[in-house]
Amino acid sequence: MKAGEPGTSSEEASHLPAEKALGEPLLSCEKLVIGYGGKAMLPPIDLTVRRGQFVAVIGRNGSGKSTWFKTLLGLIEPVSGSVSRAGPHVRSAYVPQTSAIDALLPVRTRELTAWGRLSGWNFLRPFAARSDRHAVDTAIDTAGARAIAHRPYRELSEGQKQRALLARVIATEADLVLLDEPTAAMDAVAERETMQRLCALSRERGLGVVVVSHDLIVAAEHADVLLFVDRETSAIVMGDARTVFCHPAFRRQYGDDYCQRAPPGPHRGTDAG
After folding, report:
1. So what's the pLDDT on residue 131?
2. Distance in angstroms (rounded) separating the CA atoms of residues 209 and 139
3. What is the largest CA-CA distance in the chain?
4. How far apart are the first and last CA of the chain?
5. Which of 19, 36, 78, 29 is nearest to 57 (CA)?
6. Is residue 234 helix, strand or coil?
7. Are 195 and 218 in contact (CB under 8 A)?
8. Whole-angstrom Cα distance, residue 83 to residue 244?
9. Cα(32)–Cα(68) distance, rounded to whole angstroms?
10. Rounded Cα–Cα distance for residues 5 and 43 (Å)
11. Residue-by-residue DSSP string for 169-185
12. For 121, what's the count of Cα atoms within 13 Å in the CB-facing half-sphere?
């Protein structure tokens, strides 16, 4: 949508297909304007991410995805508006692109996963508790990383590295997970498997998941809500695949083909202003 032109209203969102009711709010953007030096890049964004909801952020390079994501993480101050979590009880975790991790890091996948449990560590209890070891084992299995559990991180392929990072974030037992293009270095099969795992985590564990994705179709097949941002046309479009892919702002950037191919998806709606 262009500034001041709604894409998906709250009323429209309520009519999106629903698999099951979403949980409590975890993260809210209220009239959030992102940018640098006080200059807005996009119109205000109103969005609430709830427990059990999967949100995929899409758009071309330079569209504002990374700036919005960094604003959510608190790395960049908003131009105006706010980003807030539901309360101190909401635990969040971040999965960066694999390039953000030092390739020379002398650590194995299992050790990297165990880092996700460090928040409870203290010098009086320096060795992992049984509950921590169980959480690490579960995270490795859930991420499909059992075969690489004892391999050095620096020797892994890019796709394997991303599975190791996913295992680490699962081990945190966070309520809200933010992932920056987690499938960017994967082949098509690994990419789809990873998105399926994230979707399952959202459904089965009630995680709120926010993913920046470059693959439009795979994102649309798995996410409950798509958030399309486009700095060039000052556009924000939010909703299911058909709502987003058939919107004029999206079609201007990607053409008409995606509108015709829009998957029905497992969408359960969004809180959007």
Report:
1. 79
2. 16
3. 61
4. 12
5. 29
6. coil
7. yes
8. 23
9. 9
10. 9
11. HHHTT-SEEEEESTTTT
12. 12
Residue pLDDT tens, the chain, 273 long: 443 343 443 333 333 334 456 789 999 999 999 999 999 999 999 999 999 999 999 999 889 998 998 899 888 999 999 999 888 888 888 877 655 566 666 889 999 899 887 654 444 444 457 778 888 999 999 888 999 999 998 888 877 888 888 898 888 888 999 988 877 767 788 788 888 888 888 888 899 999 999 889 999 999 999 999 999 999 999 999 999 999 999 999 999 999 988 887 555 544 544
Tell me the two tokens of residue 73.
């993480």
Domains of the chain, first to last: 10-90+175-272 (3.40.50.300), 103-173 (no CATH)
Residue 4: phi, psi to the nearest 5?
A: 80, 0
Spatial distance between the Cα atoms of 201 and 105, rounded to a whole number of angstroms: 28
Q: How far apart, in Å, are the Cα atoms of 86 and each of 15, 71, 90, 176?
A: 25, 17, 7, 11
User: Measuring CA to CA, which residue among 154, 34, 180 is closest to residue 97?
Assistant: 180
CA distances from 185 to 30, 167, 195 (A): 33, 17, 13
pLDDT at residue 145, rounded to an integer: 92
Dihedral pair phi/psi, residue 37, rounded to 5°: 60, 30
β-strand pairing of 54-58 with 45-50:
unpaired
How many helical (H) and strand (E) elements, i.e. helices and strands, does the chain have? 10, 12
Structure tokens at 25: 């709010």
**Which structure tokens are listed for 64?**
């504002």
Distance in angstroms (rounded) separating the CA atoms of residues 90 and 142: 22
Q: Do 185 and 173 touch, CB atoms closer than 8 A?
A: no
* DSSP-assigned beta bridge partners for residue 219: none
